[in-house]
Amino acid sequence: MIIPHFENYPLLTQKLADFKLFKQVTELIENKSHFTREGWLCRQEIINIKASMNLGISEELRSYFINTVPVQRLIIKTKNIPDFYWISGFVSGEGNFFVDIFKSSSNKIGYQVKLRLSFTQHSRDKELLELIAFYLDAGIVNIHSKNAFVFKITKLVDLTKKIIPLFEQNPIQGVKKLDYLDFCEVAKLMSEGKHHTSEGLDLIISIKNKMNTKRKID
What we know:
The protein is α+β, with helices and mostly antiparallel strands. Helix content is about 50%, strand content about 15%.
């Protein structure tokens, strides 16, 4: 069921390359090639494939298969985003909804509030992040670390006028929906200017303190 699903609804990130290699291994196992007299050749082939997947193979495993030669791994070049529902699914799995609160001398109550939708991917998927930014007509892509890039949207007008309405039509799924709903509540308070008041700031802080890792799931 899993492999047909991803063939009908292809992955767009570099994980598609891992999926294709994974499929090769399942076909070898289904054919029971590793149980034949020449099974050692099949087992080596499986190890060669595994060496090109995800983080590769451990030194211990390599010591048992000293003739390992990683197979060629595809480079995935995504040309377009299929629809916003794909964005919704991607954000449901990879995205993060943040409420940032920091001191600010330019604000009369001494604090500033910013909303941030972000997701981070390996540097191999930088072009995909840029494609998402182009598709949404919002957000920027920056270096996150040595091997990663981050896409983020922080402009309140983009979040309230473009992103939230699209998620309303194509809902976030899973437990992340709870963070999204809190995020929307803060966005509404900010649109009403309540983040500039002590009472509004206190309410936003209380919402922030139950989001993401601070959320308690019964």
